[in-house]
Design goal:
Strand content: 25-35%
Shape: globular
Distance between the termini: 18 Å
Bound molecules: guanosine-5'-diphosphate, magnesium ion
Low-confidence stretches: none
Oligomer: single chain
Length: about 170
């Protein structure tokens, strides 16, 4: 097996589910009460990927920055050496969707060439959505970023996000 460490940033407005993504993916836990992240939250998960007949063992290092609501608060240190990134917004938070452009700009400035993916979280609440599906799809096309619609709560489609990023990382 070939082993790699991959540092992945998870970016998006407060409350979209960044900490929940990490907790679900790394520990398979879900906590319904909101606890604001203090400091940088970090966790690891191992993923196994098969590509071109080779087996890869990848350690994903997942980073969630605190104080993310304030763009200016995200430190340079956080972006340093990042190898992939997830831009997250929430199905029930219009503002989190509208903020994506600013997150994207910040990310492109610090990490122009890393694999990136767009994640719409909380699709279990799709009935209460204030974002049209077409808006999301057109942003995904404009940025040429793959879109995953997930529910951390229901553990729906989240693993595919990490599988995809790992494969793009290895291919690049
Ligand atoms: P962060 O500020 O981006 O780290 O957001 P959190 O991970 O702390 O989540 C904010 C709130 O959204 C918490 O109350 C979570 O339980 C809730 N949440 C996270 N994911 C989901 C989801 O898929 N569905 C629903 N309904 N709530 C979620
Ligand atoms: Mg958090």
């Amino acid at each position: 097996d070939i082993e790699h460490d991959v540092k992945i940033l998870i970016l998006g407005s407060g409350g979209v589910g960044k900490s929940s993504i990490i907790r679900r993916y790394c520990l398979n836990q879900y906590i319904p009460v909101y606890k604001k992240t203090i400091g940088v939250q970090y966790n690891e998960a191992d993923i196994h990927v098969q590509m071109d007949g080779s087996n890869y063992q990848i350690k994903l290092l997942l980073y969630d920055a605190a104080g993310q609501e304030d763009f200016n608060n995200v430190s340079e240190q956080y972006f340093r050496d990042a190898q992939a990134a997830i831009l997250v917004f929430s199905t029930i938070d219009r503002g989190s969707f509208d903020s994506l452009r600013r997150w994207k700009r910040l990310l492109d400035k610090s990490c122009p060439n890393i694999p990136k993916v767009l994640v719409q979280n909380k699709v279990d609440l799709i009935q209460n959505s204030c974002i049209k599906p077409e808006e999301v799809e057109s942003l995904s096309m404009e940025w040429n970023m793959k879109l995953y619609r997930v529910s951390v709560k229901d553990d729906f489609n989240l693993k595919n996000v990490f599988q995809y990023l790992s494969e793009v990382f290895l291919a690049g």
